[in-house]
Amino acid sequence: MRGRVVLAWLCGAGLLVAATFFLDDYTADMFRKLLLTTTLVLSFNFLFGIAGQLAFSHVAFYGIGAYAIVIFAHQLGWPLPLAFLAAAGCGFILSLAVAVPSLRLEGFYLGLASLAFAQLFTVVTSQGGELTGASEGISGFASPVILGVRFSGQNYLFAVIGLFLATLAILLAVDRSYFGRACRAIRDNPQPAAAMGINVARTKIIVFVMTSVLAVVAGMFYAYSDNYVNPFVFNLDYMFLLFFMVVIGGTGRHIGAVLGSAVLFLLPEILGGAVGKRHLFFYGLFVVMAILFWREGLAGIVDWLKLRLKKAAPEFRAAAPAEFSLRSSRAVGGDATLDPKQPILSVRGLSKRFGGLLAVDGVDFDLYPGEILGVIGPNGAGKTTIFNMLAGAFAPSSGSAKLLGQELMGRAPHEIAASGVMRTYQHNRPFAGLTVVDNVMVGAHCRFLSHGRVGTKRQRVEADVRAEALQILDFVGLGHLANAEIRRLSFGQGRLLEVARALIGHPRVIMFDEPAAGLTPGELDKLGEIIRWISRQGIAILLIEHDMHFLFPLADRAIVLNFGRKIADGVPKAISADPQVIDAYLGMAVQQEAGVA
Amino acid sequence: MRDFLELIVSVGEAGSIYSLVALAYLVALRPTGVFNFGLGEWAGLGAFVGITFVVTLGLPYILALFPIIAIMAMVGYAAERLTVRPLIERDAPTLTPVLALLGVLVMTHEAIVFFFGTSNQYAPSPLGDGIVALGPFVGATQSFLIIAVTGGLFLGAWYFFERTVWGRAFEAVALDRFAAGVVGINLRITSALAFAASGAIAGLAGLLQSPLTSASYLMGLPLAIKGFSALVVGGMGRVEGAYFGGILLALLEKLVLRYAPIPAGFAIGVPLALLILFLLLRPNGLLPARTVR
Amino acid sequence: MRRNLLTAALSVLCLAAAPLQDAAAQDAIRIGVITDRTGNAAEFARIEEQGLELALKEINAKGGILGRKIQLLYEDDEDKPALSATKARKLSSAGVPIIIQLSSSTSTQQAEAATLETKTPHIGANQSADTLVTKLDNPYFFLAGMPGSIQFKTLIAYTQQRYKTAAIFTDTSAIAMFIAKTFRAGLEKSGVKIVAYEIIETGATDAVPQVQRIRQAKPDVVIDAGNLISESATFYRTYRQLGLTYPVIASYNKSIPRYLQLVPGLLNGVAFLDCFDQEKPETKAFIEKFKAEFKAEPFSLAGYGYNALWLVKDAMERAGSTDREKIRAALEGTKEFPSVLGAKGTVFSFSAKQRAGFPDKGAVIRLIENNQHGRAVFSGY
C-alpha cells in the first residue's frame, strides 16, 4: 500500500517535470505562477476550509516572504541559507503576533482583523523607504545560485514544482492525522471539540502559524519569478481570488483547491474576449452559486467520477457482530485496580451564581467506580449547570470536585477530558464535516496526545484507534454507517454516536446529559444495555435523566436536585418514597411504579 | 482657532459618511447576524445611480431621491432574498452568508464598471458647490448637508429602534431570533427590510459623498473599510455606536493628520492601527449593546 | 496522484490553447500591446489606446511597415504586475517583434523582467518613473513617457529661483509617491526648503488637515504630485474652500481634461507640466487628425499612444526587418525623431546610455485658465 502511494507521488512529480520540457516561455511562466498560486490556495484551504478560520492575511504573509528573502539576501547581502532562515523566522514571529491576540476573535471579527493587518502590510511596504524600495519596489537582483546551479528558467520551475509537491505532502500528512480531525472538529463545533480533549486555542494557533509560514515560504519562491517585489501584487484582489478558488473548488478539499486554482487561474487566459474581460463578475456569481447550490464545488465532479469508476469507499460497510471488550490503557493502574469503595469523583460544596441567580447551591455527592448515579430534578434545578462545571465549560463560584484526589475545578475542558472525564450533550453535537467513524475517533484525541504524536508510533495508534472505533460503532449498532456523513444519521443514531464518542477515550467517568430524550422504545432498550455494559467495565457514570421509567431500573443510586440544592441521595426505591422528592418532582405515580421495579 | 473650527466641520462631514456606512452594516447585521463587506460597492452604486437621475435624466434632486433610494433598497432586498435568506433558512453557519456576499461584492463592482465605466463622474450638490458659514463654522455647503442629513437619519433611526414597535421587533430578532419568531415577529420581513434599509443607507452615503470627491468605480473599498472601522470602534450593539464610532474615527484621523509630528505616510496608517487595537482589546466597541430583554 | 495528473493535464491544455489563439493572418505584422482594461489604470490606458488606434489607421493607410499591414495584439494585464510579466511573455511567445506597454510603472517594471529574459524590444509608452530605466539593466526597454526627472528640470527652471519654500502634495499611488520624491529631492538640492509634505489617503472625503498644514507652513509655491483622480479632485476642492491662493504647479497628471469637469473652475491658475505643446507642428497635425477621428480634443495620454506606435514604425523601417535584435538596435539608434510629444523644436532620441527618449528640454508648462487647458507658457529649461 505504501509502495503504491510512493509510486503515485513519483509519477505525479515525474509528469509535472516532464511537462516543463514542452512549454514555451509563456506557458512556462503561466505554469509556475499557477503552481505558486495553487500552493497558496492549498495552505489557505487548510486554514479556512479545514480549520474554519476566515483570515484575509494569507496574501500578506506571501508578501512578507517575498520581501523578507529579498531584503535579507539582497538588500542586506546575507548568504542565501541564512536569509531563508531569517525570512522564515520573520514569518513565524509575525504569524504568532497575529494569531495569539486573534484567538478571541471569531467569524468575521477575525476576517476584519486580518484584513486590517493585510492593509497595514501595504502601508508599511510602500512607506518603507530604501529598505523596502517604497512604492516602486525592489528590482534588479539576480536569481539565486545554489550549489552551483542557477535557479532561473527551467531550474526555477523544478524548484516551484518541488515547493508545490512538498506543500501538498505536508498538508495531506497533517490532515490525515488526529490533528486534521481536531481542526475539523474545532471548525464544526468548538465546544464539544474542547470537551473531547482538544486544546482549541493551541490548535488554532498552530494551524494559523503553519499555514502562514507555508505562505511565507511560497512568497520566497515568488520573489524570483520575475525578480521584482512591489507592494501592489499582494493586495485584497488577490486575496479574494484565493478565497474564490477555495470555494468554487470545494471548501476543505485539497483536490478542490488544486482544481479551483487551475480553473480560475486559466479561465481568463483561455476564454479571452468579452467574458475574459469581465471574468471577475462570473467568479463572484460562481461563488454565490457554489455556496447556495453546490457546496462540494469542483471536487464534487471528482467524487462523481470516482463513484462512477467505483473507486470510492462504500458509504455503507458490512457491520461485524458486536462482541467487544474495552481494553483500558489508562495509566495509574487501570480500572481494575480502583477500589470500588473509594469514590472516584468527590464533589463538595459546588455552587454557581449567575448574577443574582444562585443556580447551584452547595451540592455534595460522591461517585464510585462502576456505579450509575442518576441526577434528577425539575427543569432549572441546576443539573446541566453541574455537568457544565464538571466538564470545565465554566468555573464554579465556589466548591470543589476531585477526581481521585486531583482538583478538576478551574481547569480547562480539554484538561478535564485528558484526566478521563467525558460527556455527552443534551442536544446532539456531532462534527458535521467528519464521517461517523472520524467523529468517534475525535473522542480518542487524548490518546494520540499521550502516545501517538509523531512517526510510526502515530500510525500504529491511528490504526488501533480506527479499529477500536469501528468495533465500538458495531457495538452500539452504527457499524454499517461508519463511513457515512453525519446528516445520514437519525436523531436516535446521533445519540448513540455521542455515546460512542465518549467511550473511545477510555474514560474513567462518563457524564450523560439526558441521553434518552427523543428515543424510541427500541432505542431506549439498546441504550440501557449499553450503559449497563459500560458500568460493568468499571467506568463511573453520571446520568441526568427526566425519564424515570428509563432511569430507575438502570441507576444504582440517584441524587435529586431542586432549586440548585440536593434534596435527596440514595437508591431509587428510597428516593421515590421520599416525600420531599415527591413534592418537588416525582408525584405519586412513579412511587408506585418504582415499588414494582 | 480657525483651523480647529474648520476641522470640526471636516470631522463632522467625514465622520457622518463613515457612520452612515457603519449604520448600513449595523442595520443588516443585527437581525440577521450577517456582515456584508460589499456595502462599499453599494455606496458607489448609489453615487452613480444618483448621477444617472440628476445629471443624465435631469431630475430635480428632491424628486430624484425617491427612485435612487428605491433602487438601492431593491438592491439590498435582492441580495437578502437571493443569497442570505436561503442560507439562513437552511440553518447554515453564520459565516456562510458572509462568504456569499463577498461574491455579491465582486459582482456589484464589475457591474458598476460595466454600466458606468472607469471614468470619474461629476456629482452635483443639491445646494450648489459653494462655501457657507454657519456661525463660526465655515465649510462647503455639501459638508453641512451631509452633517444635517446624517444627524437627522440617525435621530430617526434611534427613534425607530428605541420607541416604535417595529424597531423593537428588530431588536428582538437581533437578541434572539428563535424567540422572536415564536412570539410572532415575521422573520422574513424583518430580514428583508433590514437589508433593504442597509442598501438604501449605503447608497445614501455614496450619494452624499460623491459631490465632494466625484464618483469613481474605485470608491467602494475605502468606504467599506472606514465603515467597519467606525462600527468596531463605536460598538456593534446599537445605533448610537455607529454614529459615535464614525465621529471618533474621523476625529482621530483628522487630528493625527493635522497635528501629529509623524511622517505623512504613517499618519495614514493610524486608523488601521486603531482598528486592529480595538479588535484585539475591545471588539465590542466603546458603547455596549443593550442586553435588557 | 490524480491531483498531479490534473494539474499537468491542465497545463498541457494551456499549451494547446495558446496556438489556437494565433490563428490570425500570417502576413500582417502583429505589434504586442499590454494595456489595462479592468484595473486601476484602466481610465488612463483607454485614452492611450485611442491614440494608438489612430496611429494604426494612419500607418496602415500609408502602406503599413515594411510593406506589410500592422495589427495590434492586445493583452490586458489588469494593472497587476505579476500578470503583466506573464502577458509580456505571452506576447513574446506569440512572436511579436516589439511590445508597447500602456499600464502603470510598477506593472511595466515587472514586465521588464520578462522582456529582458525573452530579449523582446519593449516600449513604455507613458510611464513617468525614471526607475524603469535605472532599476534594471534592460537593453531592450525604452521609455517614451515623460520621466519625473525631466518634468522636474522644467519645473525648477520655470520657478526661476522665485521660490524659497515649497509645499508638496501627493497621494499614495506608486507614481505619485515617485514624482513627489523626485521633486522633493530636486527642490532641496536647488536650495528650496520643503516646508510641508502632505499625503492624502485613498478615499478621503476632504483634505482639510493636509491643506491646513500647507496653509500654516506658508510656502511660496505648492507642488501637486498627485495622480489619483478622485483624490486630486478632493484636494482642489478643499484647497479652494479653505481659501488658499498660493501658486500651484502640478505634474503632468493635471493635463487630464476630466478634472475640468469634476472640479470646474477650481483649477484656474494652476500651472502644470505637460508633454504636449500645441504650437509644435507635429502636435497641431495630430490634434486635427484626432478631432476628425474621435470628435474630441486629444491631450497628453492620447499623444503617448500615438507616439509609441510611430516610434515603432520608425525603428522597424530603419531596422529593415522584424528581427528583434535589429529592431532593438534601431530603436537605440533613434535620433531626432519628430514626435507629437515634447516642446516645439524638441525631438526624441535614444542611445545605449539613454533609454528614456523624451527630449531633455521637452517638457512644457501650461496654465489652466477659464477652466481650460491653455497654451504652453514655458518649455525646456
Question: What features would you describe in this structure?
Answer:
The complex is a heterotrimer of chains A (597), B (293) and C (381). Chain A has 597 residues and is α/β, with parallel strands linked by helices. Chain A is built from 26 helices and 14 strands. The two termini of chain A are 56 Å apart. Chain B has a domain at 19-221. Chain B is built from twelve helices and two strands, in the order ααααββαααααααα. In chain B, helix 1 (2-32) runs antiparallel to helix 8 (187-213), helix 2 (39-56) packs antiparallel against helix 3 (61-89) and helix 9 (220-234) packs across helix 12 (270-281). Chain C has helices at residues 2-21, 42-61, 81-93, 105-118, 131-134, 148-159, 174-189, 208-217, 229-241, 258-262, 281-294, 300-319, 324-332, and strands spanning 29-35, 70-76, 99-101, 122-124, 141-143, 165-171, 193-200, 221-224, 248-250, 271-274, 364-369, 372-379. The N and C termini of chain C lie far apart (67 Å). Chains A and C meet through helix 1, helix 2, helix 7 and helix 12 of A and helix 1, helix 3, helix 4 and helix 7 of C.
State the gist of this model.
Chain A is of the alpha/beta class and 597 residues long. Helices cover 58% and strands 11% of the residues of chain A. The model of chain A is unreliable at 327-334 (pLDDT under 50).
Gyration radius of chain A, in Å = 28 Å
| Percent range of helical residues of chain C | 40-55%
Q: Spatial order of the strands in the main sheet of chain A? A: 10-11-12-7-13-14
Q: Please indicate the percent range of residues of chain A in DSSP E strands (runs of 2 or more).
A: 5-15%
Instruction: Count the E strands of chain C.
Output: 12
- Mean pLDDT rating of chain C: 90
